Amino acid sequence: MQILNPWLIQRGSPYSAERRAEATTVSQAVNMDYMGSSEFEYGALPKCLREMETQAASTPETLTVRPIPGIHDRDGNPLLAVGLTAAALETYAGKIAEVVGGKRIKESTSFEDAVTPIADLPSYHGLRRDPPKGHRREPKRSLWLADQRARMTGFWWDIDNGVMMTFDAALAADLPRLLQGSWARLRENVEKARAEKAAALA
User: Fold this and answer.
1) Could you tell me what percentage of the chain is helix, strand and coil, using 3-state DSSP and rounding each to the nearest 5?
2) Cis peptide bond upstream of 139, omega within 30
3) pLDDT in tens, the chain (202 residues)
């Protein structure tokens, strides 16, 4: 598979593990951020999903979850990806490492939220701020911190290369199943649109 320089990376925040357990599609498991640029709109994500389905049909190994060498979050968890062949992994690792390291692309990736030690984050960052009054003692402090983490980016979708990434091992393990569900939903929508068009012309 050909690897392009990542330019359009969709950010997302994974829903809770409980909600993801009931999800059948990627969009039911991850809350996709509004990216602001038109390149992410007008069917860009469904188009990438269809391309990923075509790729998986001809090369099933792209549905294998693969750790990207050399990239870990602040807790040592590897960045896990779906959408790559074994042969393409090293090339992609070099390109995405530049992005994680701060290379500018179309929109911010917020990788720094996951890879930067908390002490090195800006003082205004959510993980650096003191909890509000009433949440400074346990167990409320831990619940507040968990909520702050849940609001941050934890999913990345490179729509130039059809690669989905996360540091969350449980979510990564679910991505092949969720992709299958997303592809099925797309096919259902196409068939529904065809049926409605046929009915309108009848």
Assistant:
1) 50, 15, 35
2) yes
3) 889 999 999 999 999 889 999 999 999 999 999 998 999 998 999 999 999 999 999 999 999 999 999 999 989 999 999 999 999 999 999 999 999 998 999 998 989 888 888 777 766 665 656 666 777 678 877 766 666 665 677 999 999 999 999 999 999 999 999 999 999 999 998 888 888 888 888 7
Residues contacting 27, CB < 8 A, separation 6+? 182
Contact yes or no for 80/172 (Cβ under 8 A): yes
Alpha-carbon distance of 100 to 135, in angstroms, equals 32
Q: Say if pTM beats, i.e. exceeds, 0.70.
A: yes
Mean of pLDDT over the chain: 88
Strands 78-82 and 163-166: antiparallel
**Rounded CA Rg of the chain:** 19
Contacts for 26 with CB less than 8 Å, ≥ 6 apart: 49, 164, 175, 178, 179, 181, 182
**Short-list 195, 194, 202, 163, CA closest to 65:** 163
Map out the domains of the chain as residue ranges: 9-111+153-201
CA–CA dist 113, 154 (Å, integer) = 9
**What residues contact residue 16 under an 8 Å CB cut-off, 6+ apart?**
150
Residues β-bridged to residue 9: 158
